[in-house]
Structure formats: C-alpha cells, structure tokens
Amino acid sequence: MRLLGWIVMLAALAFAGKAGHDLWQDLQQEEDQIALVGNAKPAEPVTDEVVERKPRNWPPIFGEPQPPKPVSDAPQEEPQPPKPPKPPIDSLGYALKGMVQMGSATWAMIDHPTGERLVRRGDELAEDIQVVKIDQAGVWVSRSGDEPELLEFVDQP
Known about the structure:
Helix content is 20%, strand content 24%. β4 and β5 form a beta hairpin. The chain contains one helix and seven strands. It has a four-stranded antiparallel beta sheet, with no helix packed on it.
C-alpha cells in the first residue's frame, strides 16, 4: 500500500514539474514581448510594430459561446387564471359513520343525502371521487386524481 502511495506521489510531482515548465516557457515568451517602462534603456530600439501573441488554447470549461437567441415577435399566450379551489369533501354531503376491519380488509360506512354506502379502497363515491385509502385517521378520497383529502369522523354534540 505504501509503494502505491509513493508511485502516485511521484506521478503527481512529475505532472507538477511539467506544468511548471510549461508555465515558465509561456512567461519567457511574454517577457520577450514586454516593452521597457520608465528610465530603463532597451538593448534594441523599440519599434511601433505590433507584436502578435499566439492565442492560448484554453479548454472551454463552461462550453462554447452561443449567440443570443432571437426574440420572437409571435404573440405570447396570456397566462390562465388559477382554478378556484374545490370545496371540502364533507361540504358535498359526505360523512364518515364507521369503519370495519377484518384481517387486512378495511371497509368504511359513508353517509350521503342519497343514502349510506359501504366502501373499500378503490371504490368510487361519485363520478371522479375515488376512495384511495382507509386508515385510523379516516377515509382518504381523491377527486379527479388530485391530492387525497381526508374524510374524518364528525363529532356529534
């Protein structure tokens, strides 16, 4: 295990040395192109010619530059107003009267102005109202596949 550590360390040192050497070469090229400033006297007369630097070939870390997307002149659709919230399930006349459990099967007695019904998971109370789950809290129903709502026992005075 230590031998592997030494090998990895030597490879890292070799990589760092190579990177340092490449940096030193780049800096030497730039140093030749720097004009002397101040009271220093150049060894050679400075001319007004433009020295072209070779472009660095940096990898595109954040991707290639993209042209801006044109703004479309097509009319945009107006946002639709939010749908009004659905009334609570018990305001539709449903009330939980009782629950029966035998083994793993659970039934619930639901009261409605049209009459009482014995339901289990998967039954429909009405069109687009389905019993999703029956547990200790009550009966969970879903309207049109929306979030399940809880129909609880009603406290009698």
